[in-house]
Write a structure and sequence with these properties.
With about 375 residues, the protein is mainly α. Helices cover about 75% and strands about 0% of the residues. The two termini are about 15 Å apart.
Amino acid sequence: MSGFGGPTRAPAWVTHGLVPLINLALALAVAGVVVALIGEDPSEALRLLALGAVGHPEAIGYTLYYATNFVFTGLAVAIAFHCGLFNIGGEGQAYLGGLGAGLAALAFGDWPAPAAIPLAVAAAAAFGAFWGFVPGWLQAKRGSHIVITTIMFNFLAAALMTWLMVEVLIEPGRQTAESRTFAPGAWLPFAHDVLAALGVDMGRSSLNLSFLLALACLGLFWLFVWRTRWGYEIRAVGHNEEAAVYGGISPARAIMLAMAVSGGLAGLVGVNEIVGVHHRLLLEFTAGYGFVGIAVALMGRNHPVGILLAALLFGALYQGGSELAFDMPNVTRDMVVVLQGLVILFSGALENMFRARIEGRFARRARAVRAA
């Protein structure tokens, strides 16, 4: 029943706010049962989790550091979703982004920071964009399935990085597969150093100025997707490819553009990790951020505001989970991963389990108000 004004839908705050909060509450409730089964107090575990995530300045710094990576990968997945694509190659694209950032930092680290750092950022985005563009081209021009190709490219990226770090870029005389340390000109400043200069005590954490880059990407993402012709074409292809063709839009062009932008965003993880924290090229710095980005995008409803909130949540889970494992010996690191997985399960795979029922109730209420 739609009435004269068209179909009545649930308010936006229900779809984008209430439903994700209910899913999160269910995940925490199930996690509480798991904690109780191993003999610990669920309420105390939740308290320690919250304190470990935001209880002191250093914890907040680490939460924001993790959230920075989740913003990049969440946006990467979201732009592909808008085009009707499922990009699960964020790990490989982040790997290549780190390679690009590291090569630029090794080459231009002796330059002044205002020149070296932008070059490293551009290289990270370019390498990641290339690693996303190729699967996009394969789907657009050769009909290859984007899920299969992005999975394959994750393995190719890992193999390429292993060979480069072991055979080419390893620092002479080093036993571990790491490059030499970058020159200081290619180091992104840590947030605690910047804030200390302003008289603010933030503790010491891995949070660096790439967090500001992540915030900028959130704003640029909104402008690109909803305020440019390219974004309109991407969304049109994602909603209905046949209608997009009828409107003069090239699906192939939209697919390749969406995947290039997606890869470029994922590649910026390399800026946070390689240029911002480690200051050298090394293996396995992606740490699963690309896969968690899928849950971040789903929970954030592919919108930059939602992605920011979801990234902060997962950042808090990562940081708070580490503190929880330290304070509660029975809650091992593997158990923390299980708790994080429950949040991903309810926020991602099962996000629509109660959505129709909740939205339907509020939609019926809205129709009743309109009828009155």
